Amino acid sequence: xxxxxxGIIGAGVMGQNLALxxxxxxFPAVIFDKDSEKLESFISKHEKNKNIxxxxxxxxxxxxxxxxxxxxxxxxxxxxVDNVIDEIIPLLSQDDIIIDGGNSHFPDTIRRTKYVxxxxxxxxxxxxxxxxxxxxxxxxxxxxxxxKAWKFxxxxxxxxxxxxxxxxxxxxxxxxxxxxxFVKMVHNGIEYGDMQLITEAYQIMKDLxxxxxxxxxxxxxxxxxxxxDSYLIEITSDILAYKDDDGEPLVEKILDTAGQxxxxxxxxxxxxxxxxxxxxxxxxVYARTLSAMKDERVEASKILNGPTPKFEGDKKSFIEDxxxxxxxxxxxxxxxxxxxxxxxxxxxxxxxNNGNIALMWRGGCIIRSVFxxxxxxxxxxNSELSNLLLDPFFKxxxxxxxxxxxxxxxxxxxxxxxxxxxSTALNYFDGFRNGRLPANLLQAQRDYFGAHTYERIDKPxxxxxxxxxxxxxxxxxxxxxxx
Length: 483
What we know:
This protein is 53% helix and 8% strand. By secondary structure, the protein is α/β, with parallel strands linked by helices. Helix 11 packs across helix 12.
């Protein structure tokens, strides 16, 4: 009986394309799905491919895998992952490996790693980014979990991953338990931010500058030749150039309500749990939720008034300012994302290599861009870098872009053009560069109404004080001074 290198549970598009990718790299794959029609349809299309087969029963699926068995689940995140794990655990042997290649929430992966290891098996939660095309041709792969499993899956996962820098694979071990899915979650959060920033640039060009879809497509095409060179900028140019059957731009016929799968929200809530400002990604998530309130917005547009956008000036010069504003905002988004990674590593006791993470995102994934090479360089030059904004390259780019950045946001706000992500990026920058924020007044307010205490600038850190502000209160301070 022929033995297969890896098994895939889930014959959706991602599962199918990964199976084809494994097979093309010399790793025979067997695929299983409870939907027999879907499975048969896939296999019939590739019946001449001797490196791919299917199994109609879960037991026969397990039996045809070489040991240690490697089972990759490509199923929707949530309860179904737990169900599949419970179904296959009794069929596996000591040190067999279960791999979750879906977008699971990293706390679930932490829990599942512990559970699977308690059964004598190994577990990997891996982010797989690049969509359907990436799964087939080479995705970015971010594995974490049972370190013992890495030596068995490393050759396979690196072989199918995207390659950069003369063949360097966009795949490396991230860390223990949920580290791989955590890094994938942050990737998706940054993806939310990138996409929102691009749509704001589009709206400024469309509503303020009155540009046509073809004109905007050409601008994005030009931007893709410089600092903004990236997959998302490239496809934006293609989308704007695409015509519907009547010759009109298809993008303008698409309903303006955006969906989400939860990873952006998870990134934002995790930042709140850890206590790290992730303002741009948070705004990108809220922008999608506001877009979904279509009926309410249409009604509000009939009642609420604002300025009519009107541009006066040099359009070509302003478009260059817009490019700089977009790039500066993008720097802030990634800076916030990597700060979250840094603090999460402390919180969960992970040893994460930010330079390697940037390299893994350099190819195959949705946020792939030339820009990520500079991030890798920044962390290679200083592994203890606390914030990308402090790296010499990014500091220079922000300084070079700052005047244009402020000009674009001011003009957009003055003309009533919605720019939540760009404006919050600038606000974060202004807050981060400010050595003294007005939180002293905020802390005084908290002490006034709740006796929450405060620290003084003329006393050592960690020493807390309470004031009887009205003369009517007592001297007892709240024990909840961290609120």
